[in-house]
Amino acid sequence: MDQRTNRKELRHDRHTVSLLTDHMVFAPKYRGKILTGEVAMITEGILCKTCKELDIEIIEIAVNPDHVHLFFKYPPKFSLRFIAKRLKGRTSRILRKEFPHLKEFL
Predict the structure, then answer these.
(1) Cα–Cα distance, 63 to 102 (Å, whole number)
(2) 68 Cβ partners below 8 Å, 6+ apart?
(3) Is residue 23 in a domain?
(4) Predicted TM-score of the model (pTM)
(5) Does residue 69 fall inside a structural domain?
(6) 3 in a structural domain
């Protein structure tokens, strides 16, 4: 174990000990600068709520006008593919419903 890793950071489950982290970057279609104002706030809220439901701990999140940075810890029961699909799918679905004019970018 790396000395920089604190034991408190490790995730202890029934039969495993893990420390899985990842940095994902999501961008809207055509890298459109649509994540501003209310859209940015709602996007961050959706991502935080979805991560909480999946038992994913957000270390850092940054919503920029044309992309989102998400650094998080996740349980070993989920693959990164599953996490990305769930986060992007739910965010896109809710934003398209709330802001129909953004449909061409989502």
Answers:
(1) 16
(2) 25, 26, 27, 35, 43, 47, 61, 62
(3) yes
(4) 0.87
(5) yes
(6) no
Q: Which amino acid type is present at position 49?
A: K
Give the whole-angstrom CA distance, residue 40 versus residue 21. Answer: 24
Structural domains in the chain (count): 1
pLDDT of residue 87: 98
- At 106 the three-state DSSP class reads coil
The domain in which residue 47 lies consists of 18-105
In a domain, 70, yes or no: yes
Residue 73 sits in a domain whose CATH number is 3.30.70.1290
Instruction: Output the pLDDT for position 2.
Output: 53
Residue pLDDT, tens place only, 33-78: 999 999 999 999 999 999 999 999 999 999 999 999 999 999 999 9
Contact 78, 54 (CB under 8 A): yes
Burial of 54 (0-12, 13-18, 19+ CB in 10 A): middle
